[in-house]
UniProtKB/TrEMBL annotation:
Swiss-Prot/TrEMBL keywords: Glycosyltransferase, Transferase
Protein name in the entry: Glycosyltransferase
Source organism: Citrus sinensis (Sweet orange)
Biological classification of the source: Eukaryota, Viridiplantae, Streptophyta, Embryophyta, Tracheophyta
Protein family membership: Belongs to the UDP-glycosyltransferase family.
GO molecular function, one term: UDP-glucosyltransferase activity
Pfam family, any one: UDPGT
Presence of keyword Glycosyltransferase: yes
Amino acid sequence: MEKQDPAHVVIFPLPGVGHVNSMLKLAELLSHAGIKITFLNTEYYYDRVIRHSSDGFSRYMQIPGLQLKTVTDGLPKDHPRTPDKFTELIDSLNLAIPPLLKEMVTDSNSPVNYIIADGYMSHAIDVAREVGISIIYFCTVSACAFWSFHCIPNIIIAGELPIKGTEDMDRLITNVTGMEGFLRCRDLPSFCRVNNPMDLQLLLFARETRLSVRAGGLILNTFEDLEGPIFIGPLNAHLKVRIPEKTHSSSGLWKVDRSCIAWLDKQPKQSVIYVSFGSVAVMSRDQLIVFYYGLVNSKNGFLWVIRPDLISGKDGESQIPEEVVEATKERGYIAGWVPQEEVLAHKAVGGFLIHCGWNSTLESIMAGMPMICWPSFADQQINSRFVDEVWKLGLDIKDLFDRNIVEKAVNDLMVKRKEEFMESADQMANLAKKSVNEGGSLYCNLDRLVKDIKMMSLRPQNC
Ligand code: UDP
């Protein structure tokens, strides 16, 4: 009997730590199930990881059946590729990628049966349709955020958007089905805070989310007890269940500082609040100082990730007041980039001051860690509302900002209301683990995806 080639999937994330890391996790799970994977990074992103991070992609290069390839993002070399230029990046990818993708998936030496594309890459759907292969979208944001993006046109038509300058930010938004009772203007994604309904970013998110219905399926990296009935994630938990013998560190853009673990080892149980604002968010020096005072004055221990590019502008860390520097030496630890999942699992950590990026939120939930949310952009505003109001896993301090508020929130989370938050975080973590373990609903969903991909490889192409 002729030997059947393994199913072959091309996976293409947007170039950002949160997107690449979560899709790499899916790639690892699929290759563990015997599926061949070609994982695409843009050249610019790949070079940054290789140049700055200690282990780059080396762990993934050793996974049999998983190959990494790079493609151009179509932007000139000196383009800044900063978050405020997101629409330029997406437009450029939508022009540059289709011909490359088409060439790749029709290569007769290594035929591709399936594309898994990041949720903002509608161009990939056209390629898949043209060559007659299946495509599904991978959504790197939460289901609640995805649904709110999807409803943007309805909110605009109903006159609830745009948000005007003088607006009461606590006004309820009534045109996102299922969220009528608690979604306020301030909880909408950051790109909704514009005066102009024709704003390019607003239209881009609305357009790309609506176009996702043209894909053959949608993977949402979440779990049922958290967000309803559709899903596969949390992928970090799947990896731990299915490939337990390996450590599953994420790739990043900075060198991982492991010395923080030795510091945590010396701290009392659940005494430390972990502070991180992810890989993209920036803050002013004034905001940094507010956090410093809030943390130091709370008298709790803290481990804070201050990336080399966290502070916007040039004045940076050199002007941090001497008194907070001294107080930090006593009970704080500053690192440039940490092994986050390991930190969250450490017994000394008792809370997470988080920006509510979706990967970090899921990692926190899986670790049973209560959160203080200070969202920055995109889906983070709505995630933080859900953490506080719906899931009861912590406190949302968006748009409230002074050192006393930070100090009070840290003490509420770590001391006064500790038991209450720990209990609900524990319950949610247990529900997540149950659904990812063998026989659980998410375990079965992932098996179904693998089966579907393998079936596609048995089907003749271009039909
Ligand atoms: N992360 C990490 N070390 C750090 C800070 C963050 O490994 O010091 C990882 C974190 O575990 C998460 C990712 O970076 O997987 C950040 O993704 P997220 O979606 O939370 O936020 P984004 O960076 O996209 O804003």
